[in-house]
Amino acid sequence: MLRRSLNSHLRTVHKYSQEEVESVQEKIRVESNIRKDAFHILCPLCEEQFVNQEDFAGHCEANHSHDGANGEEQDYTVYTVTFASKEEFKVWLHESSERTVTSLYTKYSKAGGLYYRCNRSGKYACEGERRVRSSKKEVLHCSCYVNARNKSDGTVTVKACFGHIGHDVEPALLKLSDMQKMFLKSLLEEHSLDYVIRRCRQGYSAKESRMHFMTKGDLWNIINKYGLRPGYRDANDLVSLQLRTAEENRDDGIRRLEMPVDNSGKGFIMVIITPLQLQWLKAFSSRSICVDDTHHPTRYNLKLATVVVPDNEDRGLPAAFLLSGTMTTDDVQKLFEEIKKLMPEFNPKQMVTDEALCFYNGFKAAFPSSTTTLRYCRWHISKTWERKVRELVEPRHRQYVNKELQQLLRTGQLDDFQQKFGRILAYLDVENQNKMAQYLRTNYLGRVCNWGSFGTHGAVVDTTMLSERWHLRLKNEVLHRNSNTRADCLVELLIRAVEDLADSNDIKDRRRLARSSFRTQQTTKQHRKAQELYDGKIPEKILSKGSGIWELQGKKPEEKFIVENKGGCICPSTSNVHCPLCSVCPYTWTCTCLDNRTGISCLHRHAAKISQNRAAIPREKSSAPEPADFVQRSTSEDPLAPDFEDIVQAPTSSDVCSVPQSQLEERKTIRSKIEMAFTVVMANVNRLVNSDTDEALAKLREIQEHIDKLSKLRLESSPREHEISERPELTKPGAKPLLKKVTLYTRSEHRRKLNQLAFDNLPSEVENSSTKLIMNNISSLRQVASNVRSPRTPCEAGTIFQ
């Protein structure tokens, strides 16, 4: 019944008098006021009832001030405060909640008023069925409350009480405040989850702050709330990628995006070439390129192919990315078509891939007149041969065949290569290993120029190790071995990784670090080996034959190696892979030994270069430690050295542990509060910067004066700590066009779909026979079980399992 017709109903139907009607109305008003607080306000300790929170707080102050919060003393004073603005009220509310270990929630609001209640009070009501939750509610009503009214002149009048009753004061059960969320957001923009959790637990006390009890689930909630996931634009990966492409950000380098035709990812194409990658292509691609792909960079059945170019120090630089669902020749062709649009003169001297022909065929389809030669990765061929030897060769011949095939891959002289290959084939024929012999003749004999080491003179790469090393770094350092990454997150991390790699190489070069180039490290090691083997024996073991040719004796007297300097080095003078000790060039010096790794000079080439220089190898200064007597003498003669007896008799750390520990916790707490306040200051600064008024400029100058004063408050003996620079901000969002929304299957979903499809397509007779076999097995097991359960003698029961 409607409330407005209740009075006439009482008079007409129930024949109530006017006094009785007014009595009913009064009861309704009282109950209505109670319902606004959800329930009758009931004291959880003495069960006395109240109409409003203020009376309840007065009762607690008079009767329960010493044991209200489970034996902990509380202050139930009711404050009446007026603030000039909402901002002042929010600051006061945050400080009061931090001081009293209180967390509030908005009970309801009306007519410009906000009514807050303690988060430990109320009745828990589960809103969903997917998660199993435990309630933080302890009592129906708590004396802690805040009633705020916003007036027309902008002021805020507040009545509040921060004393608790009926439950303990537990900071672990508090909610995160808005200021704490802002502080955590700033940390998550710069640091990992583990660092943020460790920082919170070290910087906040477990007795006072909710921040001490931070978990990864809390941080993920903040990440999702503020959109801190890398590259995140939409909950759907592909929609997020479409939105990013629509932004047309030049720095992203997204050259092509084609959406998949179905949930398996078929037809998906994405080509990324950033401006920095384009510079690498123009500067280094003429020497050689290396193309390879890797599996499982995301949660979907997508493959990532990378075009890697070697720089002047033969370090691999990822110059283009292709993210594809199928990685066919047509997909690779689209990658090189985008490169052709940006660089029509693209014509590398050499292209190194594994034995998958899609990369070279896609390249030739885009550049049909190119003179690029194809080289197969020597490492991939080696692994393929090892696998085929296990399949096709008898066990007693495998060790010998593997050894000969590995030596064949390393043979750099054409005559020796022909002899070894013929000897291997003859051996296999004589030993009746016809399958392996036929496999080598069919697949490798006709294309020896594409994989034989005799054709690698002057080549920069002969394996795909540059691509493999990049993919390993991507999965370990960037993706952290997470194969469940979103597609838009992968794209963002790829773009960042290119910039990070460029900065890392630049820093190593400017600092002249020895580990800046892997090949330079290996070349230096070979120089040391040459020193150990030929030091003082150059006239005996190294014979010069003139015209830049030397004959060297190996470790065994019967070993002879020919080293030749062909000349014509075109390496840059300031950035190259020459030996830093003897300046031998790995591309103009050759050797007949089996150590013919590209870009790395073997020890014989170093020895020949040393012989050519005719100069003694400079010996390093001894770095042996000083004698013990000098150390003891200098220590004893020091007038400022403490007496040994004084050190022994000094108090231990356990004697003075309590006071310094409490002071350390207090200093950490103050530091954390300062950081949180500074976050709010920066938010205000950003708003003032965007405000084109004289008042904003004056306030900015005032803030600068205060910051300058605070920056001078530091100890003279304390070193200045450098702050970690912020990460680059995401690009500005563009318009949202009509997007094609497709949800890709994850790898596990894809496998389930394929298995279900295979099961559905089984022939009826196979399915019936399988079902019949299963039913027969189940019947047999049931019969055995029934025999075991039936009463038998021990002998009869044991015969069942015989």
UniProtKB/TrEMBL annotation:
<feature type="region of interest" description="Disordered">
    <location>
        <begin position="614"/>
        <end position="636"/>
    </location>
</feature>
<dbReference type="InterPro" id="IPR013087">
    <property type="entry name" value="Znf_C2H2_type"/>
</dbReference>
<dbReference type="InterPro" id="IPR018289">
    <property type="entry name" value="MULE_transposase_dom"/>
</dbReference>
<dbReference type="InterPro" id="IPR052797">
    <property type="entry name" value="RegFact_GeneExpr_CellDeath"/>
</dbReference>
<feature type="domain" description="C2H2-type">
    <location>
        <begin position="43"/>
        <end position="64"/>
    </location>
</feature>
<protein>
    <submittedName>
        <fullName>MULE domain-containing protein</fullName>
    </submittedName>
</protein>
<dbReference type="Pfam" id="PF10551">
    <property type="entry name" value="MULE"/>
</dbReference>
